[in-house]
Amino acid sequence: MARIGLEHRRTVFVRLVEWWSKRRYGQVPDPGRVALHNRRVLTSTMLLELSVTRWKALDPTLKALATMVTSGRIGCSWCMDFGYWEFHHQGIDRVKLRDVPRWRDSEVYTELERAVMEYAEAMTATPPEVTDEQVARLRQDLSEAALVELTAQVSLENLRSRTNAALGLTSQGFKEYCELRPA
């Protein structure tokens, strides 16, 4: 259960944010409802999230896996739910998304994907546990721009997941819209 209210007075600004969110996501994501309590935080977060969509140096599958591993390591069920929905709609392999919680034992990942997920976990540890060897491994296959983007993506997901987990946000049911339903 959320540790902060999700309801708001229906101001013009609130109605505008709700309209935009429903148009983009089909519903208003709970982190947006929470952020409506502080308009400056909401505005800054929206601008950041919109600018992140223009990051293109890192392969989308690597970005998705790093994001999902980070969410899982922190234990943010909201982020895992939304991440699955978001990356599914971006065309990321559904099997790879589903196997993230057991990525070390799954056989669906490449060596590079495993290196990215290991790096994301090491970055997410407190304190971070990134080694020179991990970075050297990634530099074999990633450009410097892609490595910087990967690092920023994991940092951003730490911000999202830690915020959502601290405020008690849990799965909102986005993933259920991705599953195939029997005819």
Tell me briefly what this model is.
Helices cover about 60% and strands about 0% of the residues. With about 180 residues, the chain is an all-alpha fold.
Descriptors:
2 domains, 183 residues, 0% strand
Structure in words:
With 183 residues, the chain is an all-alpha fold. It contains nine helices and no strands. It has helices at 12-25, 30-35, 39-52, 60-74, 77-89, 94-98, 111-124, 132-139, 144-166. The two termini are 34 Å apart.
Architecture blueprint of SSEs:
Elements: H1 12-25, H2 30-35, H3 39-52, H4 60-74, H5 77-89, H6 94-98, H7 111-124, H8 132-139, H9 144-166
Helix pairs in contact: 4-5, 4-7, 4-9, 7-8, 7-9
Secondary structure class reads mainly alpha
Q: What's the number of extended β-strand segments?
A: 0
Query: Low-confidence runs (pLDDT<50, min 5 residues)?
Result: none
Any guess at the CATH architecture of the largest domain?
A: Up-down Bundle
Report the β-strand fraction as a percent range: under 5%
Give the overall pLDDT as a whole number. 93
Range of helix content: 55-70%
| Sequence of secondary-structure elements | HHHHHHHHH
CATH topology of the largest domain: AhpD-like
Rg over alpha carbons:
17 Å
Profile the largest sheet: none
| Domain count | 2
CATH C-level label of the largest domain: Mainly Alpha
Termini distance? 34 Å
